[in-house]
Amino acid sequence: MKYVVITGASTGIGYDAARYLIARGYHVFGSVRKQADADRVRAELGEQFTPLLFDVTDEGRVETAVTQVSTKIGNNGLAGLVNNAGIAVAGPLMHLPLDEIRWQMEVNLLGQLNVTQKFLPLLGAVPNAPHPPGRIINISSVSGKVVYPFMGPYAASKHALEAISDALRRELLIFGIDVIVIGPGSVKTPIWDKAQELDTAPYQQTPYQDIIEGMKKVFVGQGQTGIPVEKVSEIIYKALTQEKPKVRYAIARNRFSGWLLPRYLPARMLDNVMARRLGLKK
Question: Which of 155, 168, 231, 276 lies in disulfide reach of 143, CB 3.0 to 4.6 Å?
């Protein structure tokens, strides 16, 4: 039996990754924030799923979860930790409250590092670990490399997560623990339903009002036609099991337009493309 911890397992990428790994013989510990979600996911995925009740920013709850996992797995250790939980704060940086941006970084960056630090001993970051080293899979985004208008806080958190991943990968070489980043584009999950709920009221008296409304439609459309979530689960499994996995996996619906073009197009040209699409030019 191999054991994996996945954060943010109630829906979307985390839920499907749990389903996918369980079908391939893993026991998955999945973090959720509500007891109702814990009960639902356990009922749907079966006995090979153990819910962990914690928010990634709550150090005490995460420590309790580590004890719970340690009691279950004994000296077997964790085969992997999938840092998937996250939020997306959207809006023009000119008007976004700093507290919202701080919370974005608290969840998507410091929360991931909090979980990683707490679970590292179970992954083999101790002298003479009695089990093979596990792997850390950090779920980033295309926004970890490419920044879109109104997604500044989210992109900043993912850029920072990628930097932390590079540092951790190099620092953990002494334990043989690998750190792998997966950066998908828009994935077809329920998170895009929340884009329709974006409150545009704070921007009604600003020049961004109409542009924000248009942005909502673009994001919802991307989500509805996004990458199948199963594709991300396949890559997570590959990152956990391949003898020599890549350092970073990019997953795009259209690799040319969704990944290569925005990364290698001259910056001013990309600015103009985005401006025309969202109506940002005078």
Answer: 155
- Collect all residues with Cβ–Cβ distance below 8 Å to 263 and sequence separation of at least 6: 145, 146
CA 198 to chain CA centroid, nearest Å: 20
Query: Which is the catalytic residue, given 154, 208, 237, 249?
Result: 154
Phi, psi dihedral angles at 51 (to 5 degrees): -75, 145
d(CA 110, CA 56): 8
DSSP-derived pairing of the beta strands 135-139 and 178-184: parallel
Segment 39-48, tens digit of pLDDT: 999 999 999 9
Residue 172 identity (one-letter amino acid): L
In one-letter notation, the amino acid at residue 244 is K
Beta strand pairing call for 248-251 and 178-184: parallel
37 CA to centre of own chain: 19
Domains defined along the chain, listed by start: 2-278 (3.40.50.720)
Q: Which residues have C-beta within 8 Å of that of residue 108, sequence separation ≥ 6?
A: 86, 87, 154, 157, 158, 160, 161
β-sheet with 26-32: strand ranges across: 49-53, 26-32, 2-6, 80-83, 135-139, 178-184, 248-251
pTM of the model: 0.93
Question: What is the distance of C-alpha 149 from the center of its chain?
Answer: 20
Find how far residue 90's CA is from the centre of its chain.
16
CB proximity list for 132: less than 8 A, separation 6 or greater: 77, 124, 176
| Longest CA–CA separation in the chain, Å | 63
Question: Is 15 an active-site residue?
Answer: no
| Cβ atoms 31, 65 nearer than 8 A | yes
pLDDT for residue 195: 62
Q: Which pLDDT score is estimated for 260?
A: 86
DSSP alpha helix (H) spans, the chain = 12-22, 35-45, 59-73, 98-105, 111-123, 152-171, 209-224, 229-241, 255, 261-264, 267-278
